[in-house]
């Protein structure tokens, strides 16, 4: 199997024309496994976010029209996030996202899972903000640490049969 | 009272830099009245949409993290819409919006109510789409009829003391 085109480290890029951030990452997984990793409360808890933070999920109703809320904690403090699930279907999740520390900022996130064949699935996500300033703040927030750490933990859960 | 600057017919304009549509409309109302018009199920039913259509609200949970779904009907057919309420607070409502006939299209709507003094309140809304094509389709959909008709009905409810 050629691995030349494999995206094992997430690409995180500003869209050229809309105020969004695009993410691409391949996993050794089926679309159904990635769907479960994003919708099963206990699985999500085990991979989401940076390595040095604990997550406490307070609300989790991963269905079309549902809602979510969690808090992450490290030595420096506590960071809350919340949103609603606009659509939850096996190949696509659309949800809103707000960091409590910037309560008027809202991103609309669309995550898709595409079967690449040979056991791999490509995750593509768009975080759409309502201004380029908000998008650039999100890009500068250090969130890539949580993305890379989280997906590496997800790789581990897939490899050890947890999902 | 000068009425020179009063926006009695909604302005509906494409944003110059992001794939959004901006709406502005003034009402003889308090922010609290406009908030109720947008969150109370029975009131919303009485003003939303074009004059020649009936609305049937199927799901209505107007709170942060809640969801909504309604169907409008006319002689030609039935049109379903749904979304979730990301945030519901007295001066601002953030919600998602999808037309069932175009299920992969999602708009993130932010509606704010600003007290202008002298009994008037300005409604400002942004419908943010994930592409300029989607935004332009929404602009070309004829939705301005529903906006203008709906706000005129809302004027009537405010004038007759229903709200």
From TrEMBL, chains A, B:
Query: CDD domains attached here?
Result: SRPBCC_CalC_Aha1-like_9 (cd07826)
Q: Which domain of life is it from?
A: Bacteria
Supply the SUPFAM superfamilies for this chain.
Bet v1-like (SSF55961)
InterPro entries recorded: ASHA1/2-like_C, START-like_dom_sf
Coiled coil region boundaries: none
Specify one Pfam family: AHSA1
Annotated Activator of Hsp90 ATPase homologue 1/2-like C-terminal domain residues: 29-158
* Family in the record: Belongs to the AHA1 family.
What is this protein identified as? Answer: SRPBCC family protein
Q: Which organism is it from?
A: Nocardioides islandensis
Organism taxonomic ancestry: Bacteria, Bacillati, Actinomycetota, Actinomycetes, Propionibacteriales
């Amino acid at each position: 199997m050629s691995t030349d085109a494999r995206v094992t480290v997430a690409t995180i890029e500003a869209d050229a024309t809309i105020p969004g951030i695009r993410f691409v990452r391949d996993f050794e997984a089926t679309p159904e496994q990635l769907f479960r990793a994003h919708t099963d409360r206990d699985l999500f808890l085990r991979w989401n976010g940076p390595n040095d933070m604990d997550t406490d999920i307070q609300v989790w109703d991963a269905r079309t029209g549902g809602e979510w809320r969690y808090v992450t904690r490290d030595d420096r403090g506590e960071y809350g996030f919340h949103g609603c699930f606009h659509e939850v279907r096996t190949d696509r999740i659309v949800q809103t996202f707000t960091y409590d520390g910037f309560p008027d900022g809202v991103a609309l996130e669309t995550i898709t899972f595409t079967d690449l064949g040979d056991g791999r699935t490509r995750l593509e996500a768009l975080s759409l903000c309502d201004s380029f300033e908000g998008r650039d703040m999100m890009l500068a927030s250090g969130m890539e640490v949580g993305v890379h750490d989280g997906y590496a933990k997800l790789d581990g859960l897939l490899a050890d049969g947890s999902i």
